[in-house]
UniProtKB/TrEMBL annotation:
It comes from Paenibacillus mellifer. It is found in: Cell inner membrane. Mg(2+) binds at residues 187, 302, 306. This is FAD:protein FMN transferase. Residues 1-29 form the signal peptide. Belongs to the ApbE family. It is an enzyme of class 2 (transferase).
Amino acid sequence: MQRAQKWRTRAIILSVTAMLMTILSGCGGNEETKEKPTAGEPVSKQYYIFDTVVNIKLFDDPKAEEHLDHIDNLLKTLDIELSRTLETSQLYKVNQEAGKQAVEVSEDTMKVLERSLDYAEETDGLFDPTVGGLVDLWDIGHEGAHVPAPEDLQRELSLVGYKDVVVDEAQSTVFLKRQGMVLDLGGIGKGFAADEVAAYLRAEGVKSALVDLGGSSIIVIGSKPNGDSWNVGLQDPDSSRGTTMGTIRLSDQVIDTSGIYERFFIEDDVMYHHILDPRTGVPSQNNLKSVTILADNATDADALSTFVYVMGLTEGLKYIEDLNDGTEGMFITKDNKIYVTSGLKDTFKVTDEQYTLVEE
Ligand code: ADP
Ligand code: MG
């Protein structure tokens, strides 16, 4: 697995639980559009991409406007490369040509796909970028979503199989061996996009910025203009977006959450959400509300949060603990218990009495 160097551990103060995250810049300001900054105010912009709201904030940067325009183009390009549903996208073309022929893809698409396939190998298919057919079938988050007929489920399940993805690096092509196979990079794409934005900003010498993709992938660059580390607000998984229940202090780090309350439907008292178990074709059924990963890059953090959810609490905790590269995890169960990996233990504080930190 490709992993970067250890992320710098800073004092992390987690006041409470988390699934969705919002940025607490402490600076207020209008986040809707690019605003002329007054002293200390960020220049920020919202973009709608990957089905989510992307929020970028730059502080004290004379070239902020230019950067935000560049990021706009960068995100649009990534969407055209990585979207499964956009008919003009590379991925769409790869899926259209499944079972027929190889399709040329960009370097970005190749990178994300290869990382996905690495994780698929590593997890024995718990993370599998060929779950696209199942994602379409379940249609979670869209109106009319319901439990599919068993024969439809079996058909789509039989089309899942990362080993049938043929990557030709020299030709820069991707070929899906069987007709009907569908690639979906939704479990990792947002993280990759966040990393690309952060890499651009760092290369431009930006010292202080926040990159927030839909609240689930957040990167902080540098520290606040006054030198303090950032406060990232954490929301209760049960609450609607916007209720900040606690904070985590970050500097040059990434935090990524996968949870079941973001997109779901309930049928016969069972909750069906958007993280699928590729062994069954059904949304993973376990006792977790959410998994949050802290790491040094968002691509890994995004994939990790998705498949560690599928692993479940015991196996997932062990997996993150065993990584030994500074990656940390926080797991929240449906009965409001919080489990953290050892790197978060000393600094983790629960302030909401609904939740209990489990100390082992
Ligand atoms: P988000 O941050 O967008 O809410 P996650 O990072 O939690 O999403 O990943 C969920 C998405 O990943 C799903 O919407 C689907 O596109 C894809 N996905 C679901 N299950 C798997 C899986 N087992 N392996 C790989 N990708 C998956
Ligand atoms: Mg993810």
